[in-house]
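INTERNAL AUDIT FORM
Audit reference: QA-55
Scope: verify that the stored structure record matches its stored sequence.
Auditor: D.O.
Record contents follow.
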Amino acid sequence: MQREELYEDIDNTLSITEKHLGLSLSKFLVLLVIVLISGVYIGVLLFGENSLEVLLGLDDYQVYLQDEIVRLKSENAELQKEYFELQEISAQ
């Protein structure tokens, strides 16, 4: 008799999501869609064509190119000096 009374007090009208999460099914589905879209968006930001990884790679490449410019300018100055010395020798 007591068990039957306990079963009568249980509300069977709640959906699974309302029982376990406290959300209605429609709210749960909307929340799930928002979480999935946010996850995909963040994934694209981190690993896509215009991602943070690409930006950092381009920054490293810019530093490399700036160092290469300094090296080539120095090499050019040495070669110009050598050229003018050879030109002076041939003019004599």
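Auditor finding: record pair retrieved intact. The helical segments are 2-9, 16-20, 25-47, 52-91.
Action required: none
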